[in-house]
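Q: For a teaching session next week I want to show students how multiple molecules come together into a single three-dimensional assembly. I've collected the sequence lines for a complex. Could you give me the predicted structure tokens for the whole thing so I can convert them for display?
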Amino acid sequence: MWRQAKWDEQLITEYKSTSNRVGVLIPTEKEIRENVEIKLPSKLKRAKQPELPQVSELEVIRHFIRLSQMSFGVDTGFMPLGSCTMKYNPKIEEKVSSLVSDYHPLQDFDTVQGILEMVYEMQSMLAEMTGMDQCSLQVPAGAAGELAGVLMIKKYHEDKNRRNRDEMLVADSAHGTNPASAAMGGYKVVYIRTNKEGLVDLDVLKEVTNEKTAGFMLTNPNTLGLFESEILEISKVLHSVDAKLYYDGANLNGILGVVRPGDMGFDIVHINLHKTFGVPHGGGGPGAGAICAKGEMVEYLPYPLVQKKDGKFTFDYVPSRSIGKIATFYGNIGNVARAYAYILGLGSKGLSMVGKMSTLATNYLISKLKDLRGLSLPFSDRPRKHEVVFSAKPLFNDTGVSANDIAKALIDRGFYAPTIYFPPNVEEALMIEPTETEPKEVLDSYAEAIRQIIDEAYKNPQAILNSPSKTAVSRIDQVIANHPSTVTPTYRVYRLRSEGKISHLK
Amino acid sequence: MEMHPWLPNLASIKEMLEVIGVNDIYDLFSDVPNEILLKGDFDLPYKEPLSEYEITLRLKELKSKNMKLLTPPFMGGGECPHYVPEAVKFIISRSEFYTSYTPYQPEITQGLLQALFEYQSLIAELFELEVVNASLYDWGSALAEAVMMANRINKKTSIAIPANINPYHKEVLKTWVYGKGLKIIEIPYDKYSGELDYEKAKEIISSSNDISAIYIQQPNYYGVFEEEIETITDYAKKVGAISIMGVNPLSLGLIKPPGEYEIDIAVSDGQELGLPLNYGGPLVGIMATRWDGQLVRQMPGRIVGLTKDSNGNKAFTLILQTREQFARREKATSNITTNEALMAIANAVFLSLLGKHGLKAMAEEIYARSHYTKQKLESIKGVTSAYQGDFFEEFALRFPIDYSLIHSHLLKRGILGGIQIGKSEALFCVTEVHTKKMIDTLISEIKEVIESVEAS
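A: Of course. Below is the structure for the complete assembly, covering every listed component.
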């Protein structure tokens, strides 16, 4: 029986300390302080010190430890979040990240040859695994990679003087990041419908692809977990008008070692190192990414890249048509080092098994779930890859228990919920991605939990509707959370509102 | 492969295939065109899996190729060396934070949500601005996001930026706004004081009716305090532009925060609040705005808010999510999803430890040490200050000889000097990690090399 810790933990700013307390000592150089006067221009002086806490080290530690006990990570339990690839994060990664922690990004290249060698190896290994020619590690996350890719496509067409290429194609089942990235690049988004099979509708694609098409952003396997088997045809259609095919790497885990985006005809690929290559998610970051390209698109990659000249590495390679810099320095190199540890720990033999084992896990889970009353498996009955999307619509119709309710009931049983209500073209969607790192027995117990929840829903739906009850809090009031008269994004707002100093968010 | 610690089901393949009802794993890939199926393994320098011990050997080998410095770098430029308290490392190493996901399921991730809310709250007090998001990638991209916010609000397309801002931020900004076709106008700075040329700023801003946003960095790239920030905010109001201020977070222990200037949007990096250098990343982009619906609705990224649960208990959840990409797709305020949450928690722990007293003490210590260093260096014959304005943490100097000679001499002694910003100019950074002894060594080494070059 699982229960989460339940601390009624006040905010750190609400700790009432009676006297001057401090959680850490600042080193002081008395001799310097006696000789240097701190005399700021008076108009620059801060009127009053910020309202920060005054607490001891113990209080800080205890406070945040209690908060951590009301959280849940891969190390706590199973997190089969579709499209997120929550695989186990090997602990050796932490040690390897120490390769970079104390080095300054603007140091002379001669003094960081070890770091640069690691980055150089990563550039070429990631290119090999995606079937691309070159990778830039500038991008701190997947979405930043998408933005880079979109800008690369834009610059490519501008170089060819094609002023009217203002449309970016996106599958209607795509991650929300694809259309958002296209819009940030100044593109009009044209959605490509999914056909009855759950794949890109080739007829629609042929119809909308024309001289206005800049590119097509696609995931393969797609968000339904299905492989776009017509991919070679899709790439022909795009390339016939010299539009570029962009690979959203969020789903790479399902095919890693089986088939490469470069061999499918993709021109640009982004990789999420915090998905496919085992970097921990950190509660929503930091992640790390790579943006990789093939052929003439290599020249558009964001700079800088590491190059090797006369046996020395330098981090100053600028592709001739580069779109520029995406991150302030080199991207999240600390996490690139973590991914490096993961790659070494598997070697090409192990990496070649990742796609096979994650796909095996998904289909094993499907076998355990597909005959359950209340669930349906929309689209074709082909094997899924990294993830599967079930619809709980039948259950909802029969009992009033929704995908969201199933999620909350799973949480009550010590499992993290799947991704829900995504992709948008499936009603009451449950999107499950088990990954290759979960033992078979965990998959069995998850399937069993879903079976029990559905059973309960038919017998006594109220019990499900009341969940979760074993977590730190029960269901959340979203109205108070978002209403202009009560919305509270910081303690400062709470404080100023109670003092009557601010009103509705207008 | 028969066994691997990260692939637990290698021994269960046959059994699992039976349950699925197929004979071979490749049956699960029957929809992949045969001609593109990979034949064989990847061609990588590492064929077989390395054991954990072997990985540490490779790590050792790589580490030996990096140079071990005697002292922390005297180098800044948007990233400065600081001591990271053990308590910070300890908390962000907690698995429940470290291996968790974006808290879309609030009931099971209350602790993570509260920690992020506290980050937002502490930054709000530091900046004296009401709304803070749960982090962006870094300062450069936060600036780019702020500029795009301004464009969405007022639909204008020119951005006025000072020439004396961090050049790396400038590069990032140029890349990010290229897609939207925004124009960047540079305002020159006063070569004597190092501050923005406010007269020129007025001229440039009033000669265009298309200024969407005006940005100012405090202190600027050369470490110099900008003393006339009100001029910028007044002018922004006058021409209907959004004012954006970039700020060094530690300097706020001493100087006026963005909120006191009625700034619309503030951006920064939390690297100086409990993060190691990380060779340039992960960092943590900070963004804060005034209590204004127009600004808040256009804010990129996630925001955590305070609410109640169904039993009336205090609870936290992600709020105002209709701004985000998963809900609004191409109409979203940004494409950002994964941000820098764990680094934001590091900031929260760091600010909690420092508290009111520690923050002021830290800012004063940095101010004093950087001033001491500059005064002492200026007393060397031929060394002069590049700019006359008062400064914090970083300062620029002019040397009587080519700076690269000084830099390479220092490196031979295991000291990383400042960033070269001209033939004989460099930008130095001094913080609480540089002891008086280290500083004095730096000074005597610089003195020595100047004297020996001038004597030859």
